[in-house]
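Retry 2 of 3 after timeout on previous attempt. Resubmitting structure tokens to design endpoint.
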């Protein structure tokens, strides 16, 4: 009988708060007991976390759901704390908030520098890009659209996307815009279009490749060129040049075999390293590489400084900007706690 290899975080208790991301796969990849809960009505404290989880966690993971700070007393939590940061292209305060945690992941690589040079050393900041889910798989369907975009196009929410699609539709009649079950929709398109509203490397990129679509996506940073190769795994365009995009799309539609090969290559790249199982495994092993108690002790020794430098101003900011009076009052009380 061969020896059984221990899973990372074997025997530990983990509180996973807010965004689900790859939490289900994380539960399978690690050896910990994991409880996933949402912080819904208002910011909460350590006692609430323990009550909701039914145990005192060894690790707390706060997974970004694009909300204001939802944990009070964070600087004094007695377990390892981890911020899974995704929407740094929307919330510029994330790098400051991250300093109150023991560890932090960043989805958009070009933003890592914003998190560095503060309290957290570089080795405690980890690049963890978006991914395709295990259910993002190819489906058989007749190709009925030349170029498909799937997503919300309300101009008050996505102005760049809405204006670009309007101009593109005027110049290319084969564009189809839809919302709904993207896997079924992708399967019916010869080409799938991605748009980066704020220059981010978004989930649609990985979802489309995971479904074996031939993807046309903007030229961006954030490590996209490190993960995928233009003309080999996908096709890129300048998002400010709609005429250039039209020319690219028209040329690709004339070469079905080239599109098929690129779609196959992008699909293989995702399967080999960019599905949720890969992110969950990388994340679990990264967490397991640290001396948890040493990081916790270091934060607890500096709790007052962390509160003053990273949390107090954020609480005051949200006390001024939140619309609900109850939330305003909660953040003001949190900011005054150390006064």
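Retry 2 succeeded. Sequence:
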């Amino acid at each position: 009988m061969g020896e059984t290899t221990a899973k990372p975080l074997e025997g530990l208790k983990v509180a996973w708060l807010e965004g689900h991301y790859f939490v289900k796969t994380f539960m399978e990849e690690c050896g910990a007991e994991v409880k996933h809960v949402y912080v819904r009505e208002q910011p909460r404290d350590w006692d609430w976390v323990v009550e909701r989880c039914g145990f005192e966690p060894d690790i707390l993971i706060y997974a970004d759901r694009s909300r204001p700070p939802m944990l009070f007393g964070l600087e004094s939590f007695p377990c390892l704390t981890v911020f899974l940061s995704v929407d740094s292209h929307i919330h510029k305060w994330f790098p400051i908030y991250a300093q109150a945690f023991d560890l932090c992941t960043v989805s958009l690589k070009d933003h890592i520098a914003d998190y560095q040079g503060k309290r957290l050393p570089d080795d405690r900041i980890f690049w963890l890009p978006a991914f395709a889910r295990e259910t993002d798989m190819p489906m058989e369907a007749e190709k009925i659209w030349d170029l498909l975009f799937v997503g919300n196009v309300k101009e008050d929410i996505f102005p760049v996307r809405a204006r670009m699609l309007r101009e593109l539709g005027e110049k290319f009649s084969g564009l189809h815009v839809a919302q709904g079950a993207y896997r079924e929709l992708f399967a019916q398109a010869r080409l799938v279009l991605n748009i980066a509203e704020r220059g981010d490397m978004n989930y649609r990129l990985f979802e489309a490749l995971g479904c074996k679509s031939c993807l046309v996506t903007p030229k961006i940073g954030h490590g996209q060129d490190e993960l995928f190769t233009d003309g080999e795994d996908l096709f890129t365009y300048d998002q400010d040049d709609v005429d250039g995009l039209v020319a690219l799309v028209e040329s690709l539609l004339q070469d079905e075999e080239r599109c098929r090969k690129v779609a196959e290559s992008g699909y293989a790249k995702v399967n080999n390293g960019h599905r949720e199982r890969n992110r969950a495994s990388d994340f679990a092993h990264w967490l397991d590489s640290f001396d948890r108690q040493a990081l916790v002790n270091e934060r607890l020794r500096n709790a007052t400084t962390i509160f003053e430098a990273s949390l107090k101003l954020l609480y005051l900011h949200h006390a001024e900007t939140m619309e609900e009076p109850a939330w305003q009052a909660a953040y003001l009380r949190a900011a005054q706690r150390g006064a």
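Attempt log closed. The longest helix spans residues 303-321.
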